[in-house]
């Protein structure tokens, strides 16, 4: 994908390792690990062979399902011979996970490997060992896209965040235009959460306070989005930044025509600015389709279902699996 210079500049400024040190007091404890050239080349390739370090007896937990381990036609010796080796880099991964208490949430510069949760035994983004890390990253098209953005520089990183169970009703995406906070959306859009209506004013107040006190005059670009967790009153955790651009950031409860349109009046007066619109479902209209549910399946399987005629029994089974994936994933993104 060709990237314009301004887009690349925005991506660089929103890359986790470039801003974390400035905001770490308001973030979940994290570590950033630069990806060396040989590992980067390995992660970008489509072939799926885990590094030799993953075959060591203590490298992977007992509940990790390594690809190919149950295959009757795989040649273990040939696979071991062709497997790459990154011992120094893998040692760093293991030490970081240990420092974070034995489990972590991982992402590349901008995105998590949410499209590859199907590959792990626990159907989760919670990593506990080398195999979890390499499997999720190797199987993720989203992360490969990240790595391709910056393939010609020493800019690619794996981010490790201390694992934290998060209720989806506490996550919000915020939209900033011309350094003014113009919109807030639940990240769990379009699902209904009863407390939004009762706590609307406090949610807006707490997010605006974090923005004005910590972000507004400090973040280096004028237009961007940021994600937060607000678990309790007066306590907001900064999760991530992303470009104010429809190519890279989902608008959730808004649409980009509105966010970029003339309907939004940007006030220059500090007292009048940062009065964001908070959009949410104000009544329960039943279970709504959620695009994130698709990430419980390999993309090839999704395409197959789209192009096939399924029986009632198959549809019922698919719905059952989807429900299980949704319940399992309700706390896996931090």
Automatic annotation (TrEMBL):
Pfam families, A to Z: D123
Gene Ontology CC terms, in alphabetical order: cytoplasm
Highest taxon of the lineage: Eukaryota
Family recorded in the similarity comment: Belongs to the CDC123 family.
Name this polypeptide is given: Cell division cycle protein 123 homolog
